[in-house]
Structure formats: C-alpha cells, structure tokens
Amino acid sequence: MNRLDFTQVIPRLKVLETKLLDKTKIDRMIDSKDPEEALKVLGETEYAAYMTNIKRAADYEVLLSEELKRTYKMLYSIIPSKDLVDVMALKYDYHNIKVFIKEKLLGKDFSNMLIPIGIMELDKLKYAITSEDFRDLTLSMRNAIETALSDFQNFKDPQRIDIIIDGYMFEELKVIDKNIKDKALEKFIKSTIDLTNLKSLFRVKKQNKSKEFLNSVVISGGYLDKDRITALFSDTVENIVSKLAYTDYSDVLKNGFDNYIKDGSLNNFEKLSDNYIMNFMKNAKLISFGIEPILAYIYAKENELKLIRIIMVGKLNNIAGEVIKERLCENYV
C-alpha cells in the first residue's frame, strides 16, 4: 500500500479531529449536577443532531449508536482503502457473531446487544449462523462459527465461545495486515494482541484455571511469543512484571497491577492498556501522510464514545465525579 494514497483525506481528518470532545467538555460532563445536565453538554457538539431521538438521559446509548454508524459510513465513503477501515470495524462483526451464536445455542433474544457496524450486514450474518450456510462469510468467520458451535457441544461453556471467536478475529486482522503491509498497522495489531494476552494471563490466574486453558486462550502473532506468555503461568504477579520489564509494556504492567494485587481487579491494567494504544495513536498528530492518522481518528472517536458511556453510567448511578475521572482512560484531544 502506497502511504501517499491518503494525502488528500488526511487534511479532512485533521479538521474532524478539532470536533472531538476536548478536556473542557469532558470535565463539564463529569462536574455536571445530574445526567440530564451532562447530556446537555453534548448538545453543544456534533451530537446535537441526535438529541431529538433522546427522551431521557438513560437513552444515551441511542445517541452513541447513531454517532458510531455515522462515523463509519463517512469513513468508508472517504478512505481510499476499504481494508483500512475494515481493520477497525471487524471487531463489531465478531461481537455480533458472538451474539448470534449465543441466541442460537441458548434460544434467547439478544438483539439489543447487536452493533450495526462491520464488514457484514447483520441480516446476512444472522442467516449464515442460523442456517449454517457460510458461503458469504470470510474464511476466518466461517472457521470461528464452526469451531465455536462444535466446542459448545462438547463443553457447554458460553465463555469458551468468546475466547474462540476472539482468536479468529485476530487471525483475520493478521490476514488484512499482510495485505496492507504497513509497519504502523502491524505495530497496532501486534501490541493489541500482546496486551490482550497479558490480560488473559492474569484473568486465568485469578480464575484458578489450568495452564492448558491459558494455552488455548493465548493468541499467536504478537511481539511476545505465545510460549513466553504461557511459561509465566506459575509465576507471581511481581515476578511476571520483573520478567517483562524489558518490554514496551513495562510501565503498563508495573503501574497496572496495584489493584490486582489488592483485590484481583484488572480495571487499572485495562485502563493503562488503553492509554498505551492511545499514546501510540497520538503520534499520528505529527504525521501528514500514511495510514496512522486514519487509524488514530477512528480510535479517537471510539475512545470518545467510551468516555461518554463511562460518564453517563456514572451520572445515572450517582457516582462521584472523582471516581468517574479515575475510570477514564486518556483522551486523544
């Protein structure tokens, strides 16, 4: 892929970046006296276009869903390479695959959990899973569904469905990465795999599951070798942090496990993992050509939606502003 292919679209993305929520607006939402007042702050931004659909503050997810759909529709229309947007949209396809599989296996309606974003239309995805006719799906999607359905027949464990589907999602991301052949995309995917694997390592230890289970969960293809991750299974948290001090994730590990050691919570590690990726994306501000500004804008927009969700959940549950601030990862702006 020629990095100069994106020179015309990047100035437009730089303009769109100026419309992202800045720290002042985020702080105003946090400091607002109630969820209604927090929502009014969004009424001063691009989100105002959806306010007529919101009857009460608790319906904020409608607003976030509409903005996510608008963002991806716009990106697919202006980005020269569809594959590049697919990289960021693919997680929604695999999320929806999980939802449809659980509907099929458990006989329940989870349609409220579906996200209408991705490379596959929801109707086609649902038909493929309910009829087990996979001809319109990618190879990785087909393998993910077939493996998950077969595994459930053997183990009857819905948690394993998520693990299997996530593994195949990263397999498909690696295929796209090979086609695009860009160092920035490779770093983004490999770093995401590493941080996902490290989270899995500590989650498996917390749940007292076996080393064999960890081996089935760990995803290959990151900078940290799969065998290197599984070899840490028997180590203490302190030893794991020490043994990985040479990696780029040293600070994430060192600062991310204070709460884990105290109460087994991975929240701080997850927040710092998000910050690690965000700091990588922020480097795109200095780049005037290449794919980095495109990845960065999509990531920044999705992060903004995540921040709004955390704030609104906090406001609706009367959580103190300081506690909400502690839960927020870094903003792009």
From TrEMBL:
Gene Ontology MF annotations: proton-transporting ATPase activity, rotational mechanism
Coiled coil start-end: none
Pfam families on file: vATP-synt_AC39
Keywords: Ion transport, Transport
InterPro entries xrefs: ATPase_csu/dsu_sf, ATPase_V0-cplx_csu/dsu, V-ATPase_V0D/AC39_subunit, V-type_ATPase_csu/dsu, V-type_ATPase_csu/dsu_dom_3
Gene3D superfamilies listed in its UniProt record: ATP synthase (C/AC39) subunit, domain 3, V-type ATP synthase subunit C domain
Oxidoreductase is among the record's keywords: no
Protein family according to the UniProt entry: Belongs to the V-ATPase V0D/AC39 subunit family.
Protein name: H+transporting two-sector ATPase C (AC39) subunit
Organism encoding this protein: Clostridium cellulovorans (strain ATCC 35296 / DSM 3052 / OCM 3 / 743B)
Upper classification of the organism: Bacteria, Bacillati, Bacillota, Clostridia, Eubacteriales
